[in-house]
Amino acid sequence: MGIRAEDGVAMIPSGVDAARGDGQGPARDGDLLEAVRARSLPGHVALIMDGNGRWAQARGLPRLEGHRRGVAAAERVVRFVAEERLFPCLSLFAFSTENWNRPPEEVESLFTLLEQFIRARGDEFVERGARLEVLGAIDALPASLRRAIAEIEERTRGGEALHLVVGINFGGRWSILEGVRQAMALARNGDLTPDELDNAAFSRLLPTAGLPEPDLIVRTGEEKRISNFYLWEAAYSELYFTPTLWPDFDETALLLAIQDFQGRRRRFGGVAQ
Ligand code: IPE
Ligand code: IPE
Ligand code: MG
Question: 87-118 pLDDT, tens per residue?
Fold first, then answer.
């Protein structure tokens, strides 16, 4: 059951209340926001948006409806982070290199939804000062999605309020292999010796070069795994797992994850201060 781009994101309720899907009131909690703001905030939060299918299944709905609600949840979180300038960099894992293992109709629907999301939110990204960057093997994506990606990246290039990174056909292993390919090409030309290749030099060769390493990786849904998201970059990320299914993830859920992060003691292999 594929969907067409012209079916429109209009089908996704964009208001906070409507998008919550549980009929509850606005998800913002002023006290919690204040408490989170009072402590040191992460620079880069990465979200593994899992559980759309189970959300739909629990309601007797097709998986596609779960993905639609998932897009609405992503829109809400992006809006919140940009509006509140909560932290400067947000990554969303939208489609992994392994998600091609799904039925072709679901893959096609996911690409259509992603294209709709990118096209429908373009003006808002520009208005809110969000810079959108897509990371992944985009050559394998449908041409119309690739065009939408190129357009939005160009339009939002100057955005300074939020660096929004969306992983589409992204995989941590793909990313590392890209870096290895770069290193091999440089070495072949005599521009890199084995001794010169240290952590910093290799990081600069990765598709994620220039991105701060994620301070906090949040995964929704029941699973407690990375599923080939950031690997090299996650060496010292704090991990937070919540059973909340992605379509139910809201502003409060994000703040709770950050609050948990704020209670962690990061040692980076050293000793506690
Ligand atoms: C996350 O939800 C969306 C993608 C991985 C593209 P899922 O579709 O994985 O939902 P579950 O895990 O089957 O519930
Ligand atoms: C992780 O979810 C990938 C994304 C959220 C894009 P999956 O549903 O693909 O992960 P697995 O298959 O449960 O590990
Ligand atoms: Mg899943």
Answer: 999 999 999 999 999 999 999 999 999 999 99
Regarding predicted confidence, which is higher, 70 or 23? Answer: 70
What spacing in Å lies between the alpha carbon of 94 and ligand 1's midpoint? 9
Give yes or no for residue 161 having a pLDDT over 90. yes
Supply 48's token pair. 């593994």
State which residues have CB under 5 angstroms from ligand 3, the bound ion.
50
11-66-166-219 Cα dihedral, nearest 10 degrees = 150
Q: How far is the CA of 111 from the centre of ligand 1 (A)?
A: 14
Is the shortest distance between the CB of 74 and ligand 2 below 6 Å? no
Which among 57, 22, 19, 36 is positioned nearest to 254, based on CA atoms?
36
What pLDDT, on the 0 to 100 scale, is given for residue 24?
47
Residues labelled catalytic:
50, 99
The residue whose CA is least distant from atom 2 of ligand 2 is 50
For the chain, give the mean pLDDT.
92
How far is residue 216 from each of residues 46, 90, 200, measured CA to CA in Å?
Answer: 6, 10, 20
Taking CA atoms only, the protein residue closest to ligand 1 atom 12 is 51
The pTM of the full predicted model, rounded to 2 decimals, is 0.91
With 90 as the cut, is the pLDDT of residue 133 above it?
A: yes
Distance CA 227, CA 224 (A): 9
- One-letter amino acid of 103: P
Contact 214, 233 (CB under 8 A): yes
